[in-house]
Amino acid sequence: MNKNINRRHFIKTIAAGAAALTFSCDLRKQTSVTELDPIIGKKLFLLRYDTEHESPEKMAGFFEKAIEVHRKHQIPATFFCKGRAIEKRKNQFAAFYQEIKNDPLFDIQDHSYSHIGIGYAKGKDVPTLKADYEKSFALHEQLFGARPIGISICGTRGKDGPKLSGFDATEKSRAELDMLASLGVRMVNSFLTGFDETKVFLNYSSLGHPEIMGFPSAYSDTSWLHRRKFGDPIKYIFSQCEKRAQANEHMPLMLHDWAAWTRADDKELTHVIKITDFARKLGYQLTTHVACLKQKALWA
Ligand SMILES: [Zn+2]
Q1: Which residue blocks in 77-170 are alpha helix, DSSP H?
Q2: Residue 21 reports pLDDT greater than 70
C-alpha cells in the first residue's frame, strides 16, 4: 500500500517536474510546442480576434504584445483578418505572420475584405459578396503565401437588416454558403436553423457541404468590453465561464483587435490573461479553430 502511494507520488512529481522544465524551456526560447493538446472529449475555450482595425498608428504594438502574451501564457488564438486591414497595416501583418507562421498557438483566417455581411435578410448579392471575399483571400495569399480556409461572419445588422436563422433559411443564404465552399472555405460560424450558434460545432452536410465545419461564436467584446453593457467586464465574463462550465458547454470568446488594444484598462492584454487563466481553472481546454477542424470527431 505504502509502496503504491510512494510510487504514485513519485510519478506525479516526475511528471510535474517534466512539465515545469518544458514550460521554462518554452519561455526561454520564446517558441511554443509543436502541437496543441488533444481536444476530443474536452470542453473547449475558443478564443478569437476579429482583426479588422485599419489604422497602423492606433494599432501600433498590438501584434508584438499579442505574440508576447499568448506565447508566455500559452494561449492559443485564431486571428480572423479583414482584407482591408491587411492592406492598410501591411507591414504590421507581414511582421506578425513571419513571427507566428510555424507556431500552432496562432491560427490565421479571414474576415472578408470590407466587413461585408453574409447571412442577413438584405445584404449584397452573391457575386458582390464573392468578389469581396476573393479580394481578401488574394491579399492573404500575397502577404502570407497561403489562402485562408476559415472565415468569421461579420456583424452588419445595422445596414443589412435582420440576421437570418441560418444558411438554410433562404435561397440566397444557401447560395452564400455554396459561394464560400467554392472559395475553399472549410470553417465558418455554426449557422443553421434550430442549432444554438453560441454553443455547438456542426457540419453543413444538410446543405450539401459535409466538408465544412461550423464553430460556436459568442461573447463579443464589443458588448462586454467596448460598451460595458454588463458592468465590470471581467466579472461578467467570469460569470459566463462558470455558467458554461457547470453545464459542460464549450465557451467561445469573440475579441476584436481594436477593442483589446484600445478599450481595455491597459495595453498588456491583462484581461485576456485573467480570463484564460480562469477558464483553465474551470477545466477548459484552450485551442484554435483550425485545430478543431482537424479533429473531425468534434464536428463531422
Ligand atoms: Zn468584424
Answers
A1: 83-88, 90-100, 126-144, 157-160
A2: no
Percentage of residues in the chain having pLDDT higher than 90: 86
Task: Please identify which residue in the block is written with the cell numbers 465557451.
Answer: 251
**What pTM was estimated for this model as a whole?**
0.88
Instruction: Note whether 259 and 221 are within 8 A (CB).
Output: yes
CA of residue 154 to ligand 1 center, whole Å: 5
- Among residues 215, 161, 211, which one has the least CA distance to residue 192? 215
202's grid cell? 456542426
State the Cα–Cα distance between residues 214 and 212, nearest whole angstrom: 7
Given a contact cutoff of 8 angstroms between Cβ atoms, the answer to whether 111 and 70 are in contact is no
CA distance 208 to 86: 32
Q: What domains, with CATH codes, occur in the chain? A: 20-298 (3.20.20.370)
Distance 220 CA to ligand 1 centre (A): 10
What does the pLDDT average to over 15-42? 54
Q: Average pLDDT for residues 29-50, to the nearest whole number? A: 80
Q: What burial letters (b/e) apply to 240-267, b meaning 16+ CB within 10 Å? A: bbeebbeeebbbbbbbbbbbbbebbeee
Dist. CA 29 → ligand 1 center (Å): 33
